[in-house]
Structures are given as structure tokens and as C-alpha cells.
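This section describes the prediction task in plain terms. A model, or a person checking by hand, is given the sequence of a single protein chain and must write out its three-dimensional structure as a string of C-alpha cells. No templates, partner chains or ligands are provided. The sample shown here is typical of the held-out split.
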Amino acid sequence: MAYDESLAERVRAALWQSGTTFEEKTMMGGLCILVDGKMCVGVVQDRLMARLDPAIYEEMLERPGCEPMDFTGRPMKGYVWVDPPGMKGEAALQHWINLALEFNPRAKASKSRKKSG
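The expected answer:
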């Protein structure tokens, strides 16, 4: 499953513009962007993944183009997909990135898995 490179470039540009230091990893068939070692935003196919404050999760799901992120048959609270209509234009994309960046300092880092071998 590939990701939309033009969307990835838009996301990178928005992060650079905000002065955010980030790292990229390919995972889950897409591009994951980590800020301070924590998953923040990503691109899978033509959708943006954003990690938001769970306190605003339900409210954000009411916005056009936003839906729960669901990889396993169970939505992941605080993680959303934003479809292309929900991030049309740079201001709309920046809105989602800003929400993810605002939550990032309070987000918990995932536990690192020890490699066996």
C-alpha cells in the first residue's frame, strides 16, 4: 500500500513552516511522522492520519472528511483519518497538523519492542 507523495510533501512543508523537528518512518503501509519520538501525523494512501487529544476526538469526527482510524476492526481513540475533502487547501491541512502538534507533548510514547535474536 503506497502513500500519496504530494500529500507527504504538503505535510512536510507544514511542519517545516511551523519550525517542528520531526522524523519519518515507513510503517503501516504509509509514512509515519514522529515528533519527540511519538507518532503525530502520517500519510496512508491519500489520507492524513492525525493523533489528536482524546478530549476533542468526538467533536473532530463531526468535521467533514474526518473519520475514526480503524486498522484492527476497532477504532483507535484519539487517532483519525482525514480524507482529501477535509484537508483541501493548506489552511485545512494546517488545522489538522496543529491539532496533532498541540496534543503531542501530552501524548504517551509507544513502548519500544525489544528485538529478539
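For orientation: Residues 61 and 67 are 6 Å apart (CA to CA).
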